[in-house]
Structure formats: structure tokens, C-alpha cells
Amino acid sequence: MASSDPNKLMAKADKLTKLSLTRWSADWKSATQLYEQAAIGYRVAKNHEKAKIAFEKASKGQEMLSSPWDAAKHMESAAALAKEVGNWTEVADFYKRASELYIVCGRPQPASDALAKGARALEDAVPDEAIQLYTEACSILEEDDKEQMAFDLYRAATCVYIKLEKYTDAATFLLRWGLAADKCSATNSQCKAYLSAIIVYLYAHDFKQAEKCYNDCSQIDVFLRNDHGRCASKLLSAYSEGDIEEIKRLGQSSTISNLDHVIIRLARKLPTGEVCALKTEAAEEQEEPLDENDLT
Amino acid sequence: MSVIDILTRVDAICKKYDKYDVEKQKDLNVTGDDAFARLYAAVEADLESALQKAESVSKEKNKASAVALNAEVRRTKARLLEEVPKLQRLAVKKVKGLSGEELAARNDLVLALPDRIQAIPDGSAPAAKQSGGWAASASRTEIKFDSDGRFDDEYFQQTEESSGFRQEFEMRKIKQDQGLDVISEGLDTLKNMASDMNEELDRQVPLMDEIDTKVDKAAADLKNTNVRLKDTVNQLRSSRNFCIDIILLCIILGIAAYLYNVLKK
User: Angle at which helices A261-268 and A147-163 pack, to 10 degrees?
Assistant: First the structure.
């Protein structure tokens, strides 16, 4: 049966599903079968556009047959083919629909997997959409108490943010990662996430934020006592003193080399030329209160 | 053991088990309502025990235990000094049944406490002794250095050998430091990898549990199916055997009939 022309199969299946005077209810069962065969045939023939449409219809058929699992699977295949075609909106839509169907099945893990696949496909083309998908995938897992699985997603999303140079967003996301790690007591990942956030803030020339971030994170005992916490405090003190050599040395240290490679790249570039400015700023602030004292 | 030793031991044991002496406790508890008196009694008791410990230190032969006892005495002293402000506050409070004179007396007692606490010997009292530092060994009259402080003499110059030795020592130290640095970096990497592995394994534990349950269910289903299959096959086989039996029987009868016919002719 697979050898017969997929076009013919499609036509036959369409006839089965179209309602007319002679046909009062669509025969979804056989139609779905035919759609599936046609889709496989098209895929083998590398006809991506038609294969995508066939998979869409097959998925709809499975939905009608109330088997959301198969429907979701077909949706995913359709989405993969849409990626080949290059139709990005459809890719996003299909993956989202597949994820919804998986949730209907009561299986959040494949749901978030589908969203992650979609996000990965869209990373280069439509990064904003990709980030949205990543965030949704993370929230699905967090609702289900499976934060451990979400670590890869957090990492990928952070990479995308940094590529887009949206540093505050990246740092916020890293802090969210730290929170998830905290919930499943993954202390190493948590401390790494906090240290990465501080480095991102410093890279974005936002020293005040970095300090605030460090103060917030030192509320957490684990970070304070950890290697990463000590490295962060050394980094901040080196910044406030304007010690470029120290910053460079810390950037090469092993604590930072254990972080994610995107963060390592940022850290190696760290003394981004504004360190002297920070020093003079701090000095100016100190002079003002003295003047007030002189006046009084 | 002499009588004196026995007497001292008995005294010590009695003191130790005083707390079980009901009558004596009743006397002490008369002051139970008065917070100040209670606290003061407690502080006094602690002072006493600290004094005793200090005395036993002077009798101690073992240096380590002497040091330990001294440290304990110092700790008790610090604690007692902390209690003194509390006592001062309580001393000023008015308690029923107490005259004005007694109140004043209490205040004096509290003021005298810090001095008494400080007076307990704890091995660090002669502070002036240590002011000289290492070089002041000359201040002790028993030990004498011949040179009397002149270190520029030729006698003390570094010979070539000794300076070469010193250099080699420094170089070896530097090499050791470098080696230790390398080791420390390697250990850092190992530690990082180990924590990551730890987290990964933690992540996989619930997955393994899920797999376990699912596989158990699948195994039970399979077992079930196997049993039913076995029954079915048996049934089939037995009926098949039965048919085969009948057919063979017919064939044998046929052959027998044929032979009978042949023989009859």
C-alpha cells in the first residue's frame, strides 16, 4: 500500500472526510490511516510542503478519534517539516498545538519537550519567539515539580538572551534558574547561576545592580560559604578598587572556568574599560559629604 | 592512701553529690522567689568551681590538660562577666520583703563581682612577661647568649654554602608551590565534575523509579499472557493429537482390511 501514489491516497482520504449529500458523517478512521500513509509517502519523496499538510490532516483525524497522543505526535512531525520549509509561524503554532495535546494526555514532560524542540528550531530565525517557548516550557516543568529537567532549558534560554545582548533579561533568567535549583536542592547549579548573574551584570556595566544582586544572594547561606560566592565577592571588591589585574586573574580562575561557556566568554572580556570610571565615581561621592561638613 | 587523701576525696565526693541532698536543696530553694538571689547563687557557684579548676591547674603535671583547664577557666570567666550586667539590673529591682539596706548591699555585691571574677587565675595573668616577644630571651636571667646582641660579627656571616643552601631551599619551595597550584586546579575541576555528576544522578533517580514501576507492570502482563497462551496451546495440541490418533487408526484398519482381503483370496 505504501507504494501507491500519495496523491491518490490524499484524494481518497479527502473524499472520505468531506461531507456531502451521500455521506452524512465523515469516516475518520480510514481517512486518518490514508492520511498517515500519504504523509509518509510524501516525506520519503522529500515533498515537504505536501507532507506537512498531510501530517496536519492526520493529526486532526486522530483528534477526532480522541487519541490526543497520536495527534500530538503527528503535529510534531508536521512542525518538523514546516521547519524544513522555513515557515516559522507555522513551526511555532504546530509545536504549541502539539504541546497542548500532550498536556491533554496528562504528560507534561513530552509537552515541554515539544516546546523545547520548537524553541531550538526558532533560535536562529525568530529568537524572541524562541525565548517565549523556552519560558513556557520551563513553567510547565516547574508546575509539575520537575525542575531538574528544566536546567537545560534555562541554559539554552540564557544563551539566546546573551546572543541578543539583552543582559538584564539574561540575568533575571539566571536568577530564576537559581530559584529552580534551590527548590530541588541542587546547590552547585544554584551557586553557578548566581555567579553567572553577577558576571552578566558586571559585563553590562551595571555595577550597582551587580552589588545589589550579590547582597541578595548572600542571604543564602550556601552561596555565601561556597567557592562561587567567594569568587563573586573578590570580583566585586576588585571592581570597586579598580584593580584590573585582579579582575583578569579572577577571570582565568578555575571557579569561573567551570561555568557555562557563554558566561566564560563574558568573564574573560570583563574589565570592559569602565573600571577607572567606577573608582572616580566612588571618590566623588566621598568628597561631597566632606563639603557639607565644611559648610556646617 | 593516707588519711588526708581519704578526707580530701570524701570532701570532693560530697560536694559532687550535694545536689542530691534534699534538705540542703530545700534551704537553697527558700530564695526561689527572688530572681536576683537565684542568679547570684548560680554565679557564686560558678565562681567557686572556676576557682577550684584554677587550683587544680597548678597541681597538674600534664601540660595539655593544664592548657585545657586554663581554657575552660577563661571561658567560665567570660561567661560570668556577661552575667554581671544582668545581675546589676536585677539588683536595682525592688523585691517584696527586702529592706532598703539589703538593696544597697546587693548593689555592692554585684559591683564587687567583676573584680572577683578577674582575680581567678587562668594561666594568662602575668601578661607583662610576654611583652618582650621572641628577642627578649635575654630578659630571662638563666639563659645567656654569648654575643650579647652583636650580630654583625664575622662569626655570623652567611658562608657561601649556607647562602647556596638557602637559595636552593627557596627554589624548591617555589617549585613545590607551583606543583601544588597545578594539583589544586585539578582538584577544582574534579570537584566541579563530581557535583555535576551528583546532580545528574539526583535527576535520574525518579526516572529510574518510574521505569521500575512500568517494567514491573509490563512483566506482570507478559506473565499473564504467557500462562493463557500455554493453556491455549495445550488445548490445541491435545485436540490435534486426538485427530491424529483417529486418522492413524483409520489407516491401520484400512491396511488390515486390505491384508485380510488379500489373504482371504
Answer: 40
